[in-house]
Amino acid sequence: MQVKVSLKIPFVGGIEGTWEPEQSERDASWELYVELITRISTVPLHRDEGKAREALTSFYQLFGITRHILRQYGPAVARGSDERITFGRIAVVMLNDVIRPVLAKWHPLLTSYEEQRPPHVDTVTHERGWERIDELRSEIDRTRRLLTDIAILLGRVAGVESLLAEDLRPLEPPNQRGGDWKRDSDPG
Q: Which terminus has fewer CB within 10 Å in the chain: N or C?
């Protein structure tokens, strides 16, 4: 099995090439795929929904989960040359180059703001009143898009069709002449 990889990572460049995953990499990909698609990390967080703090916490939790998967499958998921694409390389890039910069910048800034919350103001109202909340939410959305790209890649490696909500739009029935079911955004 070969999978074409084209991940664009800001400030890093990206990972490009062909991945020929071993069975252990396919299994590890499935585990991380499930974690990514079932968290806020790949679900849009609209302005009037949820809390940015919860999104940052979800990003942070991916460190422990990913480390566990890497330890569980061992060196087999990271073997190869510097140019070979492996599950290990993608997982470490995801943590160190996609998630870590967001947490390093925004976690302390948001914590500092949260510590200023008056006792009579609930946490949601307080967070939404922060002058930098739109900037943070934009960064969360940018990160979400990168994690979604990684999740889609991992799903392909695991051999499953996308289970992401935005890929589960209802299918339109074939026209009267026959044909295939299609999504409303599919051409033709």
A: C
